[in-house]
Description:
The chain is an alpha/beta fold. It has a single domain (46-191), classed as 3-Layer(aba) Sandwich (Rossmann fold). Helices cover 40% and strands 19% of the residues. The chain contains seven helices and seven strands. The chain has helices spanning 7-18, 35-55, 69-75, 92-103, 115-119, 136-148, 162-169, and strands spanning 59-63, 82-87, 108-112, 127-130, 153-157, 175-180, 186-191. The protein is globular, with a radius of gyration of 15 Å.
Amino acid sequence: MKGIGDKVWDRLIWNSQHNRMGWGGNAGIVDGINEEELNRFLIKVEWLHTELKALNPKTIWEIGTNYGSWSWLLYNTLEEFHLLTCDIVEGSREEIGFINEYYQKENVEFFHQSSEAFLKGRSGADLVWMDGNHEEEWVKREILWIEATKAPIVWIDDWSWWEIRKGVEESGTNYKLDRMSPNGDVAIMRLEGVSQ
């Protein structure tokens, strides 16, 4: 896959190894604190790459920008896309600025907001990548805020965490599990009654 080994990749790996929990979260989808862990994440990245190419979404939202690994993946997978990404950590803005500048495009737009503030009143996403607050009660509310936007598809990272699964399952959402990544770490959810 292209992008592995470029300057953005190197920066993501550096942040993963040196500042992994610095912003109160993990390092995102590119997370390699050691070789074994990196190899596990590379399998996940390849799967996401393949799924994204097949779906080819144009308007994408991300909950939980962190160091910008989702942005890196989109730039190295899709020809045309517009990503709106939010995080409560202002430092994510600098990471997104670096990524946009490196790829000499402005496909990614950062919002220094909570997911609640970001999602309120929005519509029009083809896909939402959910990788923000992992606390069960927050997840319950967040999936319902996403549902209110009528986004047809949500991909939920860290599905293997019981807090995430329980939060979604007990939320009463109309999103239904379509399938999971081979390692069970990502869930693809589809909204019942809404066409793609």
